[in-house]
Batch of 4 targets.
Target 1
Amino acid sequence: MDKILRTWTFWIRSDLRDECREHLEATKLKEMRAATGNHRAAALFRDREDGTTVVVVMSVWDSMESIRAFSGGDHEQPSIDPADLKKIFDRDHRVGHYSMSDVNVRAMLPPEWRADADD
């Protein structure tokens, strides 16, 4: 069974970058890393020149079943704490899921993440 790369993108003001990173590490990423079927979880931050930052949350999972068990209801719906929603000024409204066996997906990942597809 192919492992799944799960991604979600949102945008914040750049002055919230450190707060957002700390919050994600202490909450969402910690929850994902502890979930059954999760191999990795990380958040990528890219500052833009207009005072905004793009945040991509990425995780690798055993299967869609593992993702569904973790996410509960609609596995394509991102879970956002209501208090955090007001800090996000734009976001993808759906989570993306990609097969780790896809050579294009694998090529985009750091080598240590690619190894997860081979487990």
Target 2
Amino acid sequence: MLEPSNNNELPPIPAKRYFTIGEVSELCGVKPHVLRYWEQEFSQLKPVKRRGNRRYYQHQDVLMIRQIRSLLYEQGFTISGARQQLSGQQAKDDAHKSHQIIRQLRIELEELLQGLKR
């Protein structure tokens, strides 16, 4: 198992669609019981569950787990602090997307207005 401060020494994520909890545990340097606990604490972490309640994580889940690991183990956040950090980051991303859409709409409306003036 990797030391908590070695997040940049984690193995590369293979090009697969789904990963088992054991594979994710090795890829992220976190034990399976910790992953199950994090699922309860972080709403962003929702692996697909199939037959027999087996968890299958996708690529974005593995990236999220690595981010959570970094916040908790390297940056020293508490669980609630990491949760706030992740939701704040998500809100910033949503705001950025909204601004991009508004900018694009404005450009299109200005072009339309110029076309009507001709």
Target 3
Amino acid sequence: MLEPGNNDELPPIPGKRYFTIGEVGELCAVKPHVLRYWEQEFPQLKPVKRRGNRRYYQRNDVLVIRQIRSLLYEQGFTIGGARQQLSGEAVRDDVQHSQQVIRQIRTELEELLHLLNQR
């Protein structure tokens, strides 16, 4: 998954259930046309499509996109290499994904606590 250092430069993921392609682009620092291309290249990326073929991404999709971004832009993988890396990491991903989700939840809880303490 993402290294902790890489996740710090991206904004925290809000506690919403679905995100539009524009929101995901901002959360992951990737343009919408790149996200549409990645959907074709990475089978792990399957947003829900609704009215008029509009894409709605879930939290797990955002985490996968951040991982793809890290593999391509920061670790220097090719599309094929990143695809292979993602498919080969299935067992390790469960633990790393859980750790990342816990870190994200902790960050969000700390932010909430800070907001509550300001009252």
Target 4
Amino acid sequence: MFGQMDLILIGGVALLLFGPKKIPDLMKGLGKGLSEFKKAQNEFESEIKNVVDAPEAKATNKE
């Protein structure tokens, strides 16, 4: 996806824009945001599976 030079360039630009003191806070916020997104995605997938599996379970119970 990204090459090594691309990541170095992005890191250098981020360092220039935000400074060395803000980078850890930004990364922490990014990590929390990604974990919340992953949690919401898993909840959505499980809800979809419950909706899809519900008619099959009712049909199996009636037989």
